[in-house]
């Protein structure tokens, strides 16, 4: 085995676990429903790419609105992918 082949094998062996780990982390991160940049203190918009239930999204919206001292209420859902909640002041 030539020196160049040995060097390639050593580098390849080093980066393989790193590459596989980064793919796994990316896959897990892409599965969660995330709120978008369109969210603010008055509403929260979720891109639900993972098919989470309304109960799960309601809990996440409540946690988001709570940071502003507000409570979440369902506003609309254009598709199963886009869900919007209002952040209302407490009554």
Number of helices: 2
For the record, give the distance between the C-alpha atoms at the N and C termini, rounded to a whole number.
76 Å
Q: Which residue ranges are poorly predicted, with pLDDT under 50 across at least 5 consecutive positions?
A: 24-30
Residue fraction in strands: 15-25%
Largest sheet entry: 4 strands, antiparallel
Structural class call reads: alpha+beta
Shape: globular
Evaluate the radius of gyration: 21 Å
Give the neighbour order of strands across the main sheet.
1-2-4-3
Percent of residues in helices comes to 40-55%
Tell me, rounded to a whole number, the average pLDDT.
Answer: 74
Task: List how many beta strands DSSP finds.
Answer: 4
Instruction: List SSEs in N-to-C order.
Output: HEEHEE
Written overview of the protein:
The protein has helices at 3-29, 54-66, and strands spanning 34-35, 43-47, 71-77, 82-88. By secondary structure, the protein is of the alpha+beta class. Strand 1 and strand 2 form a beta hairpin. It is built from two helices and four strands. A four-stranded antiparallel β-sheet has the order 1-2-4-3. The termini are far apart.
